[in-house]
Design a protein that fits this description.
The chain is an alpha/beta fold. The protein has one domain (6-259): TIM Barrel (Alpha-Beta Barrel), CATH 3.20.20.140. It has helices at residues 21-30, 47-63, 81-90, 113-118, 142-157, 185-197, 207-210, 216-232, 250-259, and strands at residues 6-9, 36-42, 70-76, 79-80, 107-108, 123-126, 164-165, 201-205, 236-239. Helix content is 37%, strand content 13%. The longest helix is centred in the N-terminal third of the chain and has 17 residues, at 47-63. The strands form two sheets. The protein has a seven-stranded parallel sheet. A two-stranded antiparallel ribbon has the order 4-5. It contains nine helices and nine strands. The protein binds zinc ion (2 copies). The site of one zinc ion has 5 residues, from loops.
Length: 276
């Protein structure tokens, strides 16, 4: 077994998930997880997401005595600054439309470390979910998308809120899930150097190994990418990123990790010094 802890799980307090926290706790312990993290989404600085993470914190605290190996965290995503500002002004995202221009615009994470710590959060998975460059914020050419992902991931690698860089190169539109070599290797090396320099972890997310959108070739390339960063000195953690049931996905994931050279002992646990 290579994976012993799961640092990225969504509970019913995420807008797109339905796992009750107690069910996750029972399953995680049945699977022998040493630690497991509840990391609900905090995508926007609006009331809806704020309430979700407040509820997540409250529910985790209520069950902490029963599951002492459960750690409260959060998942953050970069958003474009015009959107952040719009929400500050209007209190909602309703009516917002992304700027229609090709330039790169500023982006930020929607909560401060102080705000999250005040809720009892002890770690943040920070992860890119969409392209921020292009006439349509979620579209654009594949080259522009790659550029945007890289630019955002580099910023996250240097951000004080990042404990773990979540699902690197995740792409809902599966733009590079056929052949991962479309991403320039120089970007991987640059990202690895920044993560190492800043003491960040990189996540091995089960998504890449279970989504039907990915080819077998891609899955092996992706495991090799994680291995290369690991060999550069970047510690790796596992995240199931479960949303609707908490099943054990490790056998499937470990098949690819083993083929890339990972053995028991290579994956990291977060130590007290890593947690807030
Ligand atoms: Zn995510
Ligand atoms: Zn997630």
């Amino acid at each position: 077994m290579i994976i012993h802890s799961d640092w990225h799980i969504h509970s019913e307090n995420s807008y797109d998930a339905s796992n009750p926290i107690a069910a996750i706790g029972d399953q995680a312990n049945a699977q022998g997880m040493r630690y497991f993290g509840i990391t609900d989404h905090a995508n926007y600085n609006d009331d809806k997401f704020r309430k979700n993470i407040e509820d997540s914190a409250k529910n985790v605290k209520q069950l902490q005595a029963k599951y002492p190996n459960m750690v409260l965290g959060v998942e953050l995503t970069p958003i474009e600054k015009p959107c952040y500002d719009y929400i500050c002004e209007h209190g909602t995202r309703d009516g917002y439309s992304p700027p229609a221009r090709e330039d790169r615009h500023d982006f930020l994470l929607p909560y401060t470390k102080e705000e999250l710590s005040a809720l009892g959060m002890r770690l943040a998975i920070t992860a890119v979910h969409w392209s921020l460059i292009g006439p349509n914020a979620r579209g654009g050419s594949i080259e522009k998308c790659i550029e945007s992902w890289h630019c955002q991931q580099m910023a996250l690698a240097c951000d004080e809120r990042t404990t773990i860089l979540g699902h690197p190169w995740y792409c809902g539109k599966a733009l590079w899930y056929e052949d991962f070599s479309i991403i320039p290797r120089s970007m991987h090396l640059e990202l690895g150097a920044a993560l190492k320099e800043n003491g960040k972890y990189i996540e091995c997310n089960s998504h890449f190994f279970r989504t039907p959108k990915a080819t077998e070739k891609f899955r092996h390339q992706y495991a090799e990418f994680l291995r290369e960063l690991f060999e550069m000195g970047v510690p790796v953690t596992y995240g199931s990123d479960s949303h609707h049931s908490y099943e054990d996905l490790r056998p499937k994931v470990e098949e690819y990790l083993s083929a890339a050279g990972f053995v028991d002992g290579d994956f990291s646990e977060l130590s007290e010094k890593d947690l807030w």
